[in-house]
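Whiteboard transcription, Tuesday session. T.W. wrote the structure tokens on the left side:
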């Protein structure tokens, strides 16, 4: 069973950058579709970015296109989310998620593995 552990969150000023990491244990990481979601207080969990098992295909929420970049390193069993030009509205707990089926999906219900989350706070 793959376990996911996020890191890299923190407090940053608006306009700053952060890189989140999601380290996965387990030999089958390379076959998992991976994604990042976020959840702000009082809001539903929302899709941020996803990447295919091969890394060839990436998908982004409209709200972060051109601002965030998702990538994966198979040798390190790690998925990254590079976040630039951060805004206060990006403040949320960010979760790494994995699904064993093929294809990125935008619904959190389609993912069967989750990390514990990492807090990202962007100050004005």
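and on the right, the sequence the group agreed on:
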């Amino acid at each position: 069973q793959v376990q996911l552990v996020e890191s890299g969150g923190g407090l940053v000023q608006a306009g700053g950058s952060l890189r989140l990491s999601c380290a996965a244990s387990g030999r089958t990481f390379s076959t998992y579709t991976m994604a990042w979601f976020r959840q702000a207080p009082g809001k539903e969990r929302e899709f941020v970015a996803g990447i295919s098992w091969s890394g060839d295909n990436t998908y982004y929420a409209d709200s972060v296109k051109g601002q965030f970049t998702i990538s994966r390193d198979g040798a390190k069993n790690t998925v990254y989310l590079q976040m630039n030009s951060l805004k206060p509205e990006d403040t949320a707990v960010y979760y790494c998620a994995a699904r064993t089926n093929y294809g990125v999906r935008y619904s959190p219900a389609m993912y069967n593995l989750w990390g514990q989350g990492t807090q990202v706070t962007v100050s004005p």
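Someone added at the bottom: The chain has a mean pLDDT of 94.
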